[in-house]
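Subject: mismatched residue count in predicted assembly?

I count 295 residues in my input, but I want to confirm that the predicted structure covers every chain. Input:
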Amino acid sequence: MKKLKNLIFATATLAGIMFSNSKVQAQTPKLNDAEIASVAVTANQIDVHYAELALKKSKDVKVREFATTMKNDHNGVIKSAVALATKLKVTPKDNAVSQSLNKQAGATEKMLNGKTGKAFDKAYVDNEVAYHKAVIDAVEKVLIPQTQNPELKKLLEGVLPVLKTHLAHAEMLQKQFK
Amino acid sequence: MRSENKISVAISLLSVVLTCFTACQNNSKTTGKTPVKHTVEISAMKFVPDTIMVHPGDTVTFINKDLVAHNATQLPDSAWRSPNLQEGERWSFVPAKSDSFFCSIHVVMKGYIMMMR
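Triage response: the counts match. Full output below for your records.
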C-alpha cells in the first residue's frame, strides 16, 4: 500500500519535478518545438498503454468504458500531433523529459501489473487522476508557454480541455472506490 | 315547415364549420410556428449552448468541433442517441419533449433541451 502511494505521489509530482513551478524555476527544462512534440506524443502514448493494460485486466464496466475513452482520445491526439509535425516538417526529438516520462511510466505499469481485481481498478483510476493532473500542469506551465510555432501551440491549447475532462471523469470514478 | 328545417340545419352546419375554422385558426396561431433550426456546437469538451429552448417541430443539430469524438445521448435511458461524431461531423433530430442529455464517451459533458409548449 505504501509502495502504491509512493508511486502515485511520484506520478502526481512528475510535472512538478520535470516541468517545475515557481519554487524550482531553475529546473524548468528549455524545450524547442521538436522536443515539445516528442513530449506531447510520449505523454499520450503512456496513457494509451495504461488504458490497454486496464482493458486487459479490468472487468469493471465503468473502468473499461473510461479506459476505452482514454485509448481512443489519446490515440486521436497522437494522430493530430503527428499529422501536424509532418505538415510542419518537424521531427519529434527525444529528450530528457520524454525519457523521464517513459522511465516513470515503466515503474507505474509494473506496479499496475502486480495488481488484480478491485485493487487494480482502484490503482488504475488513482493513477489516471494523478497522471492527468501532472500532464495538465506541464502543458499549461511549460509546453504551451515554450512552444514557438502557433499551430503547435493551438494544438496543445486544444488538448487542454480534453485532459481536464478526462481528469473530471477519472475523479468521478475515483469516488466509487472510496 | 320542412323548408324551414332545412334552412335551420344548413345554418347550424355553417355555424359548426365556422366555429371549427376559427378554432383551427386560433390553434395555428399558438402552435403553428415556423420550425426553427437550433445549432449546438461541441467545442472545448462542452455543449455550446448547453441549454436549448425549442418548440414542437424545431430541429436541433449537433456539430463536433473538437479533436476527439463525441455523441449526444438522452438521459437517463438513451431514448435517442446520435452516432459518434468525429471532428467536423454533424447530426440533427427533432426533439419531442424536454430531455437531459450527455456525451456517453465523456460522461461529465451534459446539456438540456427544454420543450416550450
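The first helix of chain B runs from residue 2 to 31. Marking this ticket as 'not a bug'.
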